[in-house]
User: Fold these one by one.
Assistant:
Number 1:
Amino acid sequence: MKIKLLICALAMFTMSVTNAQELKIGYTNAEYLLGLLPEAKQIEADLRAYETQLQNQLKAKYQDLQTKIGDYQANEASYNELIKADKQRELTSLQESLQQFQTDAEQSLVSKRNQLLQPAVEKIGTAIQAVAEENGFSMVLSAGSPGFDVLLYASEQHDISELVLKKLGIDPPSGN
């Protein structure tokens, strides 16, 4: 009976070791890969240009508001109550419009970033999938994004970043 139990335990241990060997897990840092894509510089340049455009519009709106506030303060004593009230409503409206534009600009910038990055992210995802399939990885985890890591520890031998870069046609930088 003890021999049967020992054989059964040994068989279960062997099966668990065999199953563990079938499970191959790798990891990569998608931000690192993205930063090395040739189109990353163009994406960054396009995003900076869009951000500059939004900042210039915001500055123009702010300067317009400041000019009207200065005009109101300079001429306030000469305004009757009806004109004062109208000017105050106009200034309040301009200030609200400026705040709304700033909020919309921030949202627009995030949307533009996502739009510009989507093709590159899809390209990296396709390359990761191909590397995983070609090299028999059961899973590929994400690393390198503080707060969003799916990986708490891994040996560097399981880092597939260089394989993905090669799949993308990019020579990995030396020293990484």
Number 2:
Amino acid sequence: MQSYDVAIVGAGASGLAAGIAAGRAGARVILLERMPRAGKKILATGNGRCNLGNRHAQGHPYHNKEFAAPALKTFGEWGCEAFFDSLGLFVHADGEGRLYPRSNMASSVLDALRFGAARVGCELRCDCSVTSIEPAREGFLINKSIAARRVIIAAGGCAAPTHGSDGSGFALLRGLGHGIVEPRPALVQIKCDSALLPMLKGIRVQARVKIERDGKTLRRAEGEILFTGDGLSGIAAMEVSRDTAPGTIAVLDLLPEWSVYKLSDMLYEWHKARPEYTPAQQLAGLLPKRVAEAVLKDADDIATASKRFVLPVTGTRGFGHAQVTAGGADVRAFDPMTMESRVVPGLFACGEALDVDGGCGGFNLHWAWASGVLAGASAASE
């Protein structure tokens, strides 16, 4: 029987951060990873560049922001940069506070984490699926063969299953008595049902988008929208995707610079000055031609149709295309100051295993490091 101070289920972003923190605190640590190698999902982030954090994370409107706040505050405003600096990785910020490795290569981030974990003595065991965690007299028994005083669930969510996140951590938490908020894809392309989409495919616009159900706005964002053959992509669309479902609608404001009243006045004045222009010609200087044509189909009022372009939502492209999971372990059952379970003492969780998620811009990885470091340090100090 092998015994450890801390066993970490999952050697992805939050798991590696937890392992480094626990190892630095002097704990004997084992990382159990079901994939052939650690941190595979990290390599796919930021189109291979790895947007690894954001200087504005503490003010970001995370889902369950109140729960996330202590970990983010403990990590500190410059915590992400300091953490990676301690691992020998140079980090730089762009004009919006997004953090990237100086090499602009995600592999540099993973190497820094792997080497950092090895330096503090963490044992990494890949191709090791955790199928059981049982409370024991001295802590926990994992797979009936590994004993640990403390266990950290850092197995991620369900997003990008080919990179290791298959939802197995939720099953382990549920088996230990934790409630799971139904996981669903987030930061993913939205699927819509509209005959107009084929004519719009490939066009990008700067717009506001909101998701509505029965006249109530569920989520909104502003930025780039990319029309696809069956829906919407682009950062703004992905930002609102966590609240999409059949029965909701995506409402686009294609001309957010002006109110509907200002736009109506402008179009009226243009029509008076150029009465020979068709409605499509009036919109030519405002919208891409095919977007203008789509807006004008069945439109009674050009201004209103431009400010409220509606597409019925059928769902999303699913976990296989999602960047992150919305949902996860109910945070009410965890102490936000330590990431320890209130249900099972000695059990911790971090990262995407918990019902915390943020928008595009490095916020989800920032949460992974912050919560992982807090969980690792807390587990080692118990």
